[in-house]
Amino acid sequence: MSVSSGRKTIRILRAELDKLMTLPWIWTAVTVTFLVHLLLTAAFTSASLQEGAAAPGILNTGLASMSYLQAGFIILGILAACSEYTGGQIRTTLTVIPWRGRQLFMKHLALTLITIPAAFILTASGVLYAGWRLDGHAAGVEPHEVIQALLGATGYLTLTTLLSAAIGALLRRTLPALVILLGYYFIISPWSRGLLPAYFPDTAGRYMYLLPSSGELNVLTPVQGAGILMIWSVSLVAVAIVVYRIRDA
Amino acid sequence: MVLTINNLVKRRGTQEILSGITFEARPGRVTGFLGPNGAGKSSTLRILLGLDHATAGSALIHGKPFAELQHPLRTVGAALDGSGAHPMRTGQAHLRWIACAAGLPRSRVEEVLDIVGLTKAAGTRVKRYSLGMGRRLGIAAALLADPEILILDEPVNGLDPEGIRWIRTFLRKRAEAGNTVLLSSHLMGELAETVDDVVIIKQGRIVADGTLQEVTGSHSTLEDAFFALTSEQAGDAW
């Protein structure tokens, strides 16, 4: 009995989705990220109200915790990739699905399918909360601006998750991957702001969800920011697949 | 021939861990791949299963590398050391994703859980399994697609006497039904009653290959033969 390549690919995708959905760490990461995000959004919203700003922005306030929110998605990506190397699961994976390139690609696709709704729900909940609390105090915001910011934020978090999964797949161990990525995003990048060029993944990617401001120098457009972050993520996923194919499991 | 390993060489850095391994496993027989810890048994099986790459030589299943098999799980059921499952996942969830990847019905998961005696522990996280339960889960995964070839690395490790007896009987039945069984072990005494053919490896080299009778020769047990063969080969007793 011969199985078509398309059916085989769908089975691999379903198996990778099944793996992610039945791993409690994935749900813990998403749930904790959601709760922390809501708490931070509540804190930022209260601060905006107490500061008595003339017209605090709903989008700026609702997405103010994005830099912290991304930590949860970095962890999500690393857990998804490195979970293969816990308990010897990689041996099972490769004896069931020995087509390495296709398997790792499908794992990233499955992760994308989980990340997109999670990222959208999280970012939209922050903006909705800020909109509710700031009702009557905030500056007006156009619906298309809200949609653009939410899509940009969702895209940013999804691409950051994929980048993190690729780093996790390359390093195969959770702790080193966490140290490197969280170290970069939360220590190296903030400290060297202004020194790092705008084409690093986080510095370019933030233009995906920040509304252009007349008071600031807008180095990149949202599309340029998305393009640069996508190049980073796709390149790292491609490198991870090449290395995965040639090295011993 | 079903499993053909031909002049297999594996180097890691400057160390040669497999030096020209050659043997075959035939259908309808249990082939015991025996040797002390660190002899190269697992490395050979990992190359056969496509997990590691050979430096030279080949390890083929029906004349093909493992990765070129159209239906890997239906052709080969493999259980290497441990359970091969993420410790946070339940045994049932572990088998379900494997069944999904191989296009098998979910009912098959319940069947293999029953075969290996893990039905009651199906919903328990793998981290709570004993060593023996982990081995049983690994064997359940290997049996999911009822493959014609079984490759088991140290299958009796961690099993209680009842489990060892179960696997001996089970493997004999598989072979008698015409399937190919290749199992590795460092416990010669435990498997002498199970195997038809014996391949003995020491320090990355094959030191004996033949039927159980041929390898045992004039020695009273397979274990005696093993020690005699390996000390002759290495020129020392260990």
What does this structure look like?
The complex is a heterodimer of chains A (249) and B (238). With 249 residues, chain A is mainly alpha-helical. Chain A has one domain (5-246). Chain A is 75% helix and 0% strand. Chain A has ten helices and no strands. The two termini of chain A are 29 Å apart. The mean pLDDT of chain A is 90. With 238 residues, chain B is α/β, with parallel strands linked by helices. Chain B has a single domain, classed as Rossmann fold. In chain B, helix 6 links the parallel strand 6 and strand 7 (180-185). In chain B, helix 3 packs across helix 4 and helix 4 (107-115) packs across helix 5. The radius of gyration of chain B is 18 Å and the shape is globular. The two termini of chain B are 35 Å apart. The A-B interface holds A 1-3, 7, 11-12, 14-15, 18-19, 22-25, 83, 86-89, 91-92, 94-100, 246, 248-249 and B 46, 49-53, 66-67, 69-73, 76, 78, 80-90, 93-94, 96-98, 100-103, 126, 141. Chain A: The chain crosses the membrane at residues 21-47, 67-87, 108-129, 149-171, 178-200, 220-244. Chain A: This is ABC transporter permease. Chain A: Keywords: Membrane, Transmembrane, Transmembrane helix.
End-to-end CA span of chain A:
29 Å
Which two chains touch over the largest interface? A-B, 31 and 37 residues
- Strand proportion of chain B, as a percent range, falls in 25-35%
- Name the CATH superfamily classification of chain B: P-loop containing nucleotide triphosphate hydrolases
Query: Strand tally of chain B, please?
Result: 9
Determine the number of helices of chain A (DSSP H or I, runs of at least 4 residues): 10
Shape of chain A: elongated
Radius of gyration of chain B: 18 Å
Largest sheet of chain A: none
Straight-line N-to-C gap of chain B: 35 Å
